[in-house]
């Protein structure tokens, strides 16, 4: 859970309740054990919960994580087994997304091989750390639709992890929505960027 959609929900507690309500319509849950609101989400659920994470103890976890501009490699560990993965989307968020997808696929009965093939075939989607053409120039331009503070921080922390030069960030908060996140995002951009 992150600072998002508060223009609609008004408070974080309302947003949490709306997210949690989705699980009342489900037969199983896959939850991020590393999320600060994990306990609030898991509390009172009447369905089986499968967890994923890298910092907290979880059913699906990742070790030996290596993030590069071309993607991320790591060992996915679950049920006493280890699967080496190479995901073509850079960033720690890709590890979390892959763990979540692997856990959900496992619960739906997909084999380990199918999970590995599916995850490794994934490519970045438009607007998600999308490299833009620079016609052979010696810089990289990445486009990302990071529209919330945690998303911007994840993107810039990822780039900071592999950037070989300066990081120049241009971001905006379009429309007349949640004004409270703008100074937070400005501070994040200033902390991770050279300009």
Short description, anyone?
It contains 7 helices and 7 strands; from the N terminus they run ααβαββββααββαα. It is an alpha/beta fold and 195 residues long. It is globular.
What brief labels describe this structure?
37% helix, two-stranded antiparallel sheet, five-stranded mixed sheet, globular, alpha/beta, 195 residues
Notes on the protein architecture:
With 195 residues, the protein is of the alpha/beta class. Helix content is 37%, strand content 20%. The chain has seven helices and seven strands. The protein has helices at 6-9, 12-22, 38-42, 92-107, 112-121, 149-162, 181-192; strands at 29-32, 49-53, 60-68, 71-78, 81-87, 130-132, 141-143. The protein has a five-stranded mixed beta sheet with strand order 1-2-3-4-5. It has a two-stranded antiparallel sheet with strand order 6-7. A hairpin with a 2-residue loop joins strand 3 (60-68) and strand 4. Helix 4 packs antiparallel against helix 5 (112-121) and helix 6 runs parallel beside helix 7. The relative contact order is 0.12. The model has no long low-confidence stretch (mean pLDDT 89).
